[in-house]
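Example 4.3 (complexes with small molecules)
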Amino acid sequence: MKLKYILPILLFALFLNACSSDDDNNDVEEINEVEGLIQIQEITNTTHTIELFNKTGEFKTGYNAVSIRVKDNTTNSYVENASISWMPMMQMPTMQHSGPNSNIVKEIGKNTVYVGYIVYQMTNTDGSGWSLTLNYSIGGTSFMATDTINVIQNDTQNVASFMGSDGSNYIIAMVAPNDPIIGINDLKVGLFKMESMLSFPEVADYTIMLDPRMPGMGNHSSPNNTDLTYSLIDNMYHSDLSLTMTGYWVLNMKLMNSSDTLLKGEDVTETNVQSSLYLELEF
Ligand SMILES: [Cu+2]
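Answer. The structure with copper (II) ion bound is encoded below.
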């Protein structure tokens, strides 16, 4: 075959090859947008499968960050333009109640993943009691999916419900650190007011005084802790938490409202070894 025939064939082959490799790179479905996460559960209805993920694959009492995908049951593709809300509910013997939960937003930089959080303030010993309802709309059409969920009791007290001296009920939940270190940790805590059985808004501009202690070692404290203050950036409370060694710590707290009135908690003294408001941590 003469060169003038071979050259066009070669070029055409190169062109085809370039096209097909381009196609591979642009295939969004090939990118795993939930890499590093474990599926907790799927909640399905006739049209969609709602996939729930987090780092452990389990709901536990306390603060739970949740990643969500919505799969179209007909096309098996993930919905990119859903607007989603949710309502966790716990059925108790004589009443039902929800818990603190965030709005659900599209995760920045992702096409198919939506994120939010739920705080479960309690659960039954067998993990039963809670259900999760998702209301969502896609292109103006509304859908609903609901199912029971399993919520396991966390080993340590990472969430607490209490009544303040103002007569209001509050929920406090530890958000971070997830992996504590010896040294200064970024402590992050959510504070919510129980306005009703269904409404638990974030509380702004209070102060939470912090006194971490090790009950197993003479109730010693640690240096360079700071009190928790409110941040408008994430609507959570932040402070420096100093942990001088591994083991079991009690984070004693005192909650002050925005006019510095004590709502809950006491100083730790020789005679009062623990505040009535505390969270626990073990590492
Ligand atoms: Cu309950």
